[in-house]
Amino acid sequence: MKDVCLPDILAGRLGYLLKHAYVGIAGAMEEALAPFSLLPRELAVMSVIDAAREQPSQLEIAAQIGMDRTTMVGVIDSLEKKGYVERRRSDRDRRRNVVTLTPEGQTCLREADQARERVERDFLAPLDADSARALTEALRTIYCARKAAGRILSAGHLHCGRPT
Question: What is the residue-wise DSSP string for 109-145?
Fold first, then answer.
């Protein structure tokens, strides 16, 4: 039987499918993170801070996740106001300012990351495990190739879905 969930004319349009998949997961993610007073991009920043081998600076975090510096300052300001991160001098180089998770931030990250995992698991539930892994790997491959080619725009450079 033919798939009747969307018109044939749209069934093969990658942009249409990706947009609607993104809208679905983004809404579910925002809802899941609301109890933690976090936005998805704030969770991403906290995750990068936590995973860093050395204490990262704002600029290093921004470079890793493809966020412009102005947006990064706003994200760190927001996380700092919530008590999840702190800015301070590096233990290794006093000339360098770094961002670290507070104990509250570490607890929040653990709990919010569990919520993120639930959302992703629910989102991928229509797929079997191999298909879910293949989708994730395919998206990662596309992202890495576009980043290597310098063709990744930060969200701060998009307006109504168009580059500004």
Answer: HHHHHHHHHHHHHHHHTTS-HHHHHHHHHHHHHHHHH
pLDDT digits 0-9 by tens, 100-110: 999 999 999 99
Domain boundaries, given as residue ranges, for the chain: 8-148
Query: Which fold, 8-148?
Result: Arc Repressor Mutant, subunit A (1.10.10)
Long-range contacts of 40-46 (CB under 8 A, 24+ apart): 40/116, 41/67, 41/75, 41/155, 42/75, 42/78, 42/79, 42/84, 43/109, 43/112, 43/113, 43/116, 45/72, 45/75, 45/76, 45/79, 46/79, 46/84, 46/85, 46/101, 46/105, 46/108, 46/109, 46/112
Tokens of 86: 């702190």
Tokens 């679905």 appear where?
Answer: 24
Q: pLDDT of 39-94, one tens digit each?
A: 999 999 999 999 998 899 999 999 998 899 999 999 999 999 999 999 998 888 88
The whole model's pTM is what? 0.84
Angstrom distances, CA of residue 6 to CA of 9, 11, 71: 8, 6, 36
